[in-house]
Amino acid sequence: MDGTAATPRSARLAQTTSVAGVARPSIRRPATLEILLSILHSRPALALLAALAAAPALPATAQQLAITWDDLPAHGPLPPGETRVEIAQKIITAMQQAKLPPAYGFVNGVQTQNEPASTPVLQLWRDAGLPLGNHTWSHMNLNTNPLADWEQDVTRNEAMLQKYMGDADWRWLRYPYLAEGDTAATRAAGRRFLAGRGYKVATVTMGFGDYLYNEPYARCVAKKDSAAIARLESSYFAAADAAIVYSRSLSKALYGHDIPYVLLMHVGAFDARMLPRLLALYRERGFRFVTLEEAESAPFYRNAIDPGLPSSPDSLEAAMTARGLPLPPAPGPGLDLDALCR
Question: Cis before residue 260, ω within 30 degrees of 0?
Answer without folding.
Answer: no
